[in-house]
Amino acid sequence: MPETCTCGTTLVENARFCHRCGKPVFEEPHVIEAPPPVHPPPAEGKNAARAPLPVGFGNPIALRIAFLMSIAIMVLEMIPFLQILFVVWCLIAGWGAVRLYRRITGLTLSPSSGARLGSITGVLTFLSIAVVMALAMLFNGKELIQQMVHQNPEVSQVVNNPAALALGFVFGLLILFAMVVGFCAAGGALSARWAGGASSK
Q1: What is the DSSP string of 167-195?
Q2: What is the model's pLDDT at position 12?
């Protein structure tokens, strides 16, 4: 800081201006204001958070609906006279799963997504049937085998051959899996296709 002004006046200590001519003793530094930070619009984040999950085992809504439909099939299968309509119940379960998913989420599924939702229903239904069959064989296996042998004596040859028995059991499970999953997937695909056609009209 200079001691005298250009006009010759002795400056007061820490003075910003000359008390005689009013000239500034020193120039103040020029502060450049930084522009405010630009934030992304919040609408994009909300839209990304609301993006629907694909239909699969990672979708909790689809999984709950499929589980509910599989329970419905198992309840119907416990009624004696309704067991013969097992294929119809599988088709209706796949159909109903797509309908319920659309009612809960408001989304219209494509036929492939409907088939996936029906397949999940079929897989859960098959697992439920397999568990029931395993429990039945565990507690009443001997009685069931005796009844089968009594009704058809040729079954005793298969029962006495463990390898043939295991092969027949696995083959039967594969056929049951294909039927349950296939018919549930077909019901889901038909429901999604019908809903898509109805909404496009």
Answers
A1: HHHHHHHHHHHHHHHHHHHHHHHHHHHHH
A2: 76
Length of the chain: 201
Helix and strand numbers, DSSP H then E, in the chain: 6, 0
The Cα-based distances of 21 to 2, 5, 9, 35, 130 in angstroms read: 15, 9, 9, 38, 103
Extract the residue ranges of the chain whose pLDDT is less than 50: 45-49, 199-201
Question: Could you tell me which residues are beta bridge partners of residue 182?
Answer: none
Q: How far is CA 26 from CA 8, 12, 17, 22, 200, in A?
A: 16, 13, 8, 12, 77
Per DSSP, the residues of 81-99 read GGGGGHHHHHHHHHHHHHH
Radius of gyration of the chain (CA): 39
Residue 3 CB burial class (10 angstroms; 0-12, 13-18, ≥19)? exposed
Task: Select from 25, 24, 19, 21 the least CA-distant residue to 2.
Answer: 25
pTM of the model: 0.63
Q: What is residue 128's predicted lDDT score, i.e. its pLDDT?
A: 86
Parse the chain into domains and list their residue ranges. Answer: 1-29, 56-200
Question: CA-CA distance, 23 to 10, in Å (whole number)?
Answer: 13
